[in-house]
Design brief:
single chain; Ribosomal Protein S5, domain 2; Alpha-Beta Plaits; 4-stranded antiparallel sheet; binds adenosine-5'-triphosphate; 4-diphosphocytidyl-2-C-methyl-D-erythritol kinase; GHMP_kinase_C_sf; kinase; isoprene biosynthesis; IspE
């Protein structure tokens, strides 16, 4: 049964880190098969959908990186509104305001998060009551990382990353180092192809060791597998060699392990507890090897309508 339409709906949506990212060889369609373990972290964007009398979605954005966010219909939040409205046979008369805290082009699925948030917000705004499985299918149309932004928690992603199976995860604490500038995800995959050309790229598979460590909630067990778990890390470091200094600075400041987040250039540091997180964040900022830091915990809930 559909809920009654509202005049404005706000959805909170988390960023992600890939605690494993196994990348296969390029497929004939140019995409890569992945086996990736997504973890949602407590670093959020909020998207507010407000009814308008217009004939298409409009977008505004506030936050430290908002000048880098497109405000036209290429914004994933606008595309989400259009896709949902087309399915329902209605006009996407909506304004989407994004309160942005997730780094832009940072490998933390910020645009994907806004797409999932806008889909959920518009569904509630228009009182559509779209079934969860259909919302997930629409998310997959919008992009490989969008379904996980809706789901949250921890999940194994296969295919392009859009086929999700929830997995068990204990509580972990993280510090993220935001880099100067962004990295284009397609450019990082192209660099991966260049670096692996002529080699036998194995079929990507989830690591049983990593899944066990994640479920255990033991930070030392997870730290032991993290430094070699991102198959895109070499490509990101090849394009941005200075990230090696950020990784070293985080470990020197007391992190248990560091890795590049997704396609980068944000780096993620696993720390023992909330107290250690504050210390590692201060050490990273003092090192001058990053633009800013964010202290977070995982797992975080997926996209959620706020009361
Ligand atoms: P991923 O981790 O999924 O590869 P990312 O976090 O590295 O993505 P995004 O923040 O999603 O990167 O931004 C990638 C590009 O997407 C941006 O440079 C921007 O042009 C475009 N974009 C479209 N919609 C948004 C949005 N709502 N927020 C940020 N960027 C957006």
């Amino acid at each position: 049964m559909s809920a009654a339409p509202r005049t404005a709906v706000t959805v909170r949506v988390p960023a992600k880190v890939n605690v494993q990212l196994a990348v296969g060889a390029a497929r004939p369609d140019g995409f890569h098969d992945l086996a990736t373990v997504f973890l949602a972290v407590s670093l959020h964007d909020e998207v507010t959908a407000t009814a308008t009398t217009g004939d298409g979605p409009t977008v505004s954005c506030e936050g430290p990186d908002s000048d880098q966010v497109p405000l036209d219909r290429t914004n994933l939040a606008a595309r989400a509104a259009e896709v949902l409205a087309a399915r329902a046979g209605i006009t996407p008369a909506v304004h989407l305001h994004i309160a942005k805290n997730i780094p832009v082009a940072g490998g933390m699925a910020g645009g994907s998060a806004d797409g999932a948030a806008a889909l959920l917000a518009c569904d509630a705004l228009w009182g559509l009551g779209t079934p969860r499985e259909e919302l997930l299918a629409l998310c997959a149309e919008l992009g490989s990382d969008v379904p996980f932004s809706l789901l949250g928690g921890a999940a194994l992603g296969t295919g392009r990353g859009e086929l999700l199976t929830p997995v068990a995860a204990g509580v972990f604490h993280w510090v993220f180092a935001v880099a100067h500038g962004g990295l284009s995800t397609p450019a990082v995959f192209r660099e991966f192809d260049r670096l692996t050309e002529g080699t036998d790229v194995p079929v990507p598979q989830a690591s049983p060791e990593l899944l066990a460590a994640l479920a255990s909630g033991d930070p030392d067990a997870l730290a032991a597998v993290l430094p070699r778990s991102n198959g895109l890390q070499a490509a990101a470091l090849s394009l941005r060699p200075e990230l090696a200094q950020t990784l070293a600075a985080g470990v020197a400041a007391g992190a248990l392990a560091g890795l590049v987040s997704g396609s980068g250039p944000t780096t993620a540091f696993l720390v023992r507890d909330a107290e250690a997180a504050v210390k590692v964040a201060a050490g990273l900022e003092a090192s001058g090897t990053c633009r800013a830091t964010r202290v977070t915990a995982s797992p975080a809930a997926g996209a959620t309508v706020l009361a």
